[in-house]
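Support request, please re-run this one:
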Amino acid sequence: MSRRILTTLLTLTLAAGLAACGSVDDDSNSSSSGASSSASSAFPVSIKHKFGTTKITSEPKRVVALGAGGTDDIDALYALGVTPVAISKDSATSNGVYPWLKDKIDTKKTKLLDTLTSIDYEAVANLHPDLILATSDFTLDKDYKKLSAIAPTVGFATAWGTQSWQEHVQVVGKALGKEKQADQLIDDTQSDIEKIAADHPGLKGRTYSLSIGNTPAKIYTIASEKDFAAQLMSELGLGLTKTVTNIKTDGGSPTGELSFEQLDKLDADLVIIAFTTSDLQKAFESSALVKNMSAVKDKHYVVTDVSTISQLRSPSVLGIPWALKNLDAGFSKLDK
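Re-run finished. Output below.
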C-alpha cells in the first residue's frame, strides 16, 4: 500500500519494522543551543548512515529534503524553524502540500519536487543546496551517489523505514546544529501523545484494527505490534485485536491482507479504516460480515482519510498530533 498514494500504497505493503537507531558522531565538543551563533559553533559534525559518513562543515543555509517515502525530514526542518529551499511534494493532494503542513509550507519560498517515481538530479543541483536530507527516500540505494555529488547527503541509518520519528528528529537536529531544540521537540510531541491518552482513559486495555481499502475484494490491515502505527496506538493504551495478528502478511511486512470472506477478523472495540474511493467503501460496508461487526453495531466504526492512515504508519513529528486529532471522535466513542 502507500505512504502518500503510491506512498500510501507502499506504506502498507513495505515493512516498517522496529526502529533502528541512527548512529550520529559529533566532530565538535560544543553543543547547539538553537541560536544561529550557537548552532554555528556546533560544526563540523559527522553523521553515519548506511551509505557512509556525511560531514557537514558549517550551518546549512539551503536545505533540500527528498523522499516520497515519508515526511520525517520535512517535518523536522519546519519544526526546528528551518525553511527548506525544496521538498518532495505530496502526491496524494492536488496542491502537493501535506495537509498537516499547510500553514507552514510557503511555495514561494520552497519548491515542491515530484519525487514519487524518480528524482530530477539536475533540478536539485540547480537549487544549489548545501545539505540534502534523504532519510525517507526509499530509492536512496540508487540515488545516493548522484545526490552526494551535488551536496552533503544524509541517508537512512541501516534500512529504509526502520528509523523511529524520534531518531529522524535527532538526526536532522544534529545536521542543523540544533540538538537541544530537537530533544525538546521530541519531549513536546511525546507530551502531546500522553495528553491524548490522558484525555481518553477509555482507550486503556481496549482493542482496535487499522486498515485501508485500496483494491476490490481485499483489505490491508496492520497485523503486527511492530508496525509504527501499532507502537503509537499502544502509547494510547490500545492493542491490536488478536484476530488480525495471525493473518497472512507480505514477506515479513507488519501489514496483512484479508479477503472479503475474512472481514469479520477486523472486528474490535474500535475499527478504523480508510478507502481510496467511495466505491470501495460502499463495497466494504455492504458486506454482511461488516454489518454484523460489534464495532459497527455499537457505532465504534470510524472511516478516516488515507493521509491519516499513512501518517500513522509513517509518523513524523508534526504529523502525529494532526493524525491523532483526526481520530479524536473515534477515541471518544470508547470513553462512553
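Residues 179-199 form the longest helix (21 residues). The radius of gyration is 20 Å.
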